[in-house]
Design brief:
This protein is α/β, with parallel strands linked by helices. Helices cover 38% and strands 18% of the residues. Helix 1 links the parallel strand 1 and strand 2. The chain is globular and about 30 Å long. Bound molecules: manganese (II) ion. Manganese (II) ion binds next to loops.
Length: 130
Amino acid sequence: MSASVLVVEDHPPSLELACYLLTAAGYRTLAAADGQQGLALALAHVPDLILCDIQMPRMDGYALLAALRANSELCAIPVIAVTAYSMPGDRNRVLSAGFDGYLSKPIVPETFIAQIGAQLPAHLRGGGNP
Ligand code: MN
């Protein structure tokens, strides 16, 4: 079965684009509009990978990551930060917070799926050949 990817993003067009590209590549997607909703969906579905914005209402990406890591069923799920931060040092701040990877926004459709696949074990990778 294809991998399930939870996308947590408060900017609707970005959320829609990420889910569209993932679905087209053969992934199953779950969409959440903020960290609280993301945590609820993670608990309910235990996805294979989580893509997470940093700046979000109610629960930001750092708080969501902390909540995931504190849960014994969810702590091993790779969590990739997807954020518009682009100042020198932002990448290090995100990675030192414990995220497994970092993608900068805006999402580039031509390279996005390859970047996601690089975060997954081979048998869970999409890529358009389901
Ligand atoms: Mn945001």
